[in-house]
């Protein structure tokens, strides 16, 4: 990330790689705290009140909507990137239990990251599904993207985290055999390694020219609450992410804190990508995991 941009900090109420990297790209210091650990007054800054949500999905989308409504896009001196060549990974979906193959291909500058679902004959079963806020359909235990009436592709968070963490702005992601991205080892690390093996290159548009990478800069503090969790974005001089989780029902997890300098994108592979998702016994029946 360019330190010449007046980055701002962020805080998100989510445990996924995707939220963490999204905050890094938006700008800055990132904190997830229990509301018991922070005075109420901090939640109300510059007229932004703590907007409460009754459902986790609404809370996640409300956070993103708040961020996108109070930000401005800034061009950087860095060009947009894509993968230098295609790469393939395959495995079983965590929630569906279905084997699927994922193929990531180069895309033109300005196209962004998007999914296409194919059947076993190679025919496309879906229209292009952009990895964008307006296409989020569900965030219960995993993130699903799709059209207006149905979920199209699921458990996208680890893959999108790896793409964001390595700076891949544009790529086409094809799923064949299923519509859920394979869990692999439960982290983003295998995706990172596959993308590094493929390499990166400057993405060119249809005219054969490069385009500048754009980032979001938050205009003022924002806070959104859900239960005893909240997300808040505040002005700061550097890009630092602080993430906390309080999970007393799983002693192996418990309460943990992690702080990472988002300015050091090179540290993503060692500091963030290896973090693995976890589940509890009560969630087991809703998942069909094949070993």
Automatic annotation (TrEMBL):
<keyword id="KW-0479">Metal-binding</keyword>
<keyword id="KW-0441">Lipid A biosynthesis</keyword>
<comment type="function">
    <text>Involved in the biosynthesis of lipid A, a phosphorylated glycolipid that in bacteria anchors the lipopolysaccharide to the outer membrane of the cell. Lipid A-like molecules in plants may serve as structural components of the outer membranes of mitochondria and/or chloroplasts, or may be involved in signal transduction or plant defense responses.</text>
</comment>
<dbReference type="InterPro" id="IPR004463">
    <property type="entry name" value="UDP-acyl_GlcNac_deAcase"/>
</dbReference>
<dbReference type="GO" id="GO:2001289">
    <property type="term" value="P:lipid X metabolic process"/>
</dbReference>
<comment type="similarity">
    <text>Belongs to the LpxC family.</text>
</comment>
<dbReference type="GO" id="GO:0005739">
    <property type="term" value="C:mitochondrion"/>
</dbReference>
<dbReference type="InterPro" id="IPR015870">
    <property type="entry name" value="UDP-acyl_N-AcGlcN_deAcase_N"/>
</dbReference>
<dbReference type="GO" id="GO:0016020">
    <property type="term" value="C:membrane"/>
</dbReference>
<keyword id="KW-0444">Lipid biosynthesis</keyword>
<dbReference type="InterPro" id="IPR011334">
    <property type="entry name" value="UDP-acyl_GlcNac_deAcase_C"/>
</dbReference>
<keyword id="KW-0862">Zinc</keyword>
<dbReference type="GO" id="GO:0009245">
    <property type="term" value="P:lipid A biosynthetic process"/>
</dbReference>
<dbReference type="Pfam" id="PF03331">
    <property type="entry name" value="LpxC"/>
</dbReference>
<dbReference type="GO" id="GO:0103117">
    <property type="term" value="F:UDP-3-O-acyl-N-acetylglucosamine deacetylase activity"/>
</dbReference>
<comment type="pathway">
    <text>Glycolipid biosynthesis; lipid IV(A) biosynthesis; lipid IV(A) from (3R)-3-hydroxytetradecanoyl-[acyl-carrier-protein] and UDP-N-acetyl-alpha-D-glucosamine: step 2/6.</text>
</comment>
<dbReference type="GO" id="GO:0046872">
    <property type="term" value="F:metal ion binding"/>
</dbReference>
<keyword id="KW-0378">Hydrolase</keyword>
<dbReference type="InterPro" id="IPR020568">
    <property type="entry name" value="Ribosomal_Su5_D2-typ_SF"/>
</dbReference>
<keyword id="KW-0443">Lipid metabolism</keyword>
<protein>
    <recommendedName>
        <fullName>UDP-3-O-acyl-N-acetylglucosamine deacetylase</fullName>
        <ecNumber>3.5.1.108</ecNumber>
    </recommendedName>
</protein>
């Amino acid at each position: 990330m360019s330190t010449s941009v007046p980055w701002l900090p962020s805080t998100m109420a989510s445990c996924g790689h995707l939220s963490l990297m999204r905050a890094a790209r938006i700008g800055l210091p990132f904190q997830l705290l229990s509301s018991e650990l922070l005075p109420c007054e901090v939640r109300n800054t510059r007229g932004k009140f703590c907007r409460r949500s009754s459902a986790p999905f609404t809370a996640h989308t409300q956070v993103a909507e708040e961020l996108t409504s109070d930000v401005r896009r800034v061009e950087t001196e860095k060009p947009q990137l894509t993968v230098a060549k295609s790469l393939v990974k395959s495995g079983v979906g965590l929630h569906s239990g279905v084997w699927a193959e994922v193929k990531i291909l180069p895309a033109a500058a300005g196209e962004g990251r998007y999914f296409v679902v194919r059947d076993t004959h190679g025919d496309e079963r879906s229209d292009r599904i952009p990895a964008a806020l307006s296409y989020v359909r569900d965030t219960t235990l995993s993130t699903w993207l799709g059209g207006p009436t149905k979920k199209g592709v699921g458990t996208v968070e680890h893959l999108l985290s790896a793409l964001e963490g390595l700076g891949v702005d544009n790529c086409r992601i094809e799923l064949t055999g299923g519509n859920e991205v394979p869990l692999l080892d439960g982290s983003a690390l295998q995706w990172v390694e596959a993308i590094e093996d493929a390499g990166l290159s400057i993405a060119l548009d249809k005219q054969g020219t490069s385009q500048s990478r754009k980032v979001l800069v938050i205009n003022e503090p924002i806070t959104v609450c859900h239960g005893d969790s909240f997300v808040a974005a505040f002005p700061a001089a550097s890009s630092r992410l602080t993430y906390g989780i309080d999970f007393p029902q799983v002693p192996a997890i418990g309460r943990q804190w992690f702080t990472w300098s988002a300015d050091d994108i090179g540290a993503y592979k060692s500091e963030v990508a290896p973090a693995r998702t976890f589940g509890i016994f009560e969630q087991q029946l809703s998942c069909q995991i094949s070993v």
